[in-house]
Automatic annotation (TrEMBL):
Superkingdom as given in the UniProt entry: Bacteria
Organism: Actinacidiphila yanglinensis
KW Metal-binding (keyword) present: yes
Name used for this protein in its record: Ferredoxin subunit of nitrite reductase or a ring-hydroxylating dioxygenase
Sample GO molecular function, one term: 2 iron, 2 sulfur cluster binding
Domain Rieske: 8-103
Entry-linked InterPro entries: Rieske_2Fe-2S (IPR017941), Rieske_2Fe-2S_sf (IPR036922)
Signal peptide interval: none
Swiss-Prot/TrEMBL keywords: 2Fe-2S, Dioxygenase, Iron, Iron-sulfur, Metal-binding, Oxidoreductase
CDD domains in alphabetical order: Rieske_RO_ferredoxin
């Protein structure tokens, strides 16, 4: 698909608790929606190291930590801050409209 991917409503802003990842699926893609430090971020829910849900990890300093081996991923860029993960996790644009949280998932390639 080459057309621009629309934003999809994933949850209500009031459903999100600070620093508590909320797992959703957008067009079949698992996404962790995280409200922290006054902003909302969307990051692919699967760790780049192994097939593990990041939504089960902890959020601190605008990073989400993979619970299995401890790599943390920057919620703004998806980049890992340390081993064992070396590849970034995709992050997605978020829009807030009223109390709705919308995410646009664009497929890589
Ligand atoms: S599975 Fe996430 S760091 Fe290993």
């Amino acid at each position: 698909m080459t057309s621009t991917v629309p934003f999809v409503r994933v949850c209500a802003l009031s459903e999100l608790e600070d620093d508590t990842p909320h797992r959703v699926e957008v067009d079949g893609v698992p996404v962790s929606v995280v409200r922290t430090e006054g902003e909302v971020f969307a990051i692919n829910d699967i760790c780049s190291h192994a097939n593990v849900s990041l939504a089960e990890g902890e959020v601190e300093d605008c990073q989400i930590e993979c619970w299995l081996h401890g790599s943390s991923f920057d919620l703004r860029t998806g980049k890992p801050s340390g081993l064992p993960a070396t590849r970034p996790v995709p992050v997605y644009p978020v829009k807030i409209v009223g109390d709705d949280v919308l995410v646009s998932v664009t497929q890589e390639s």
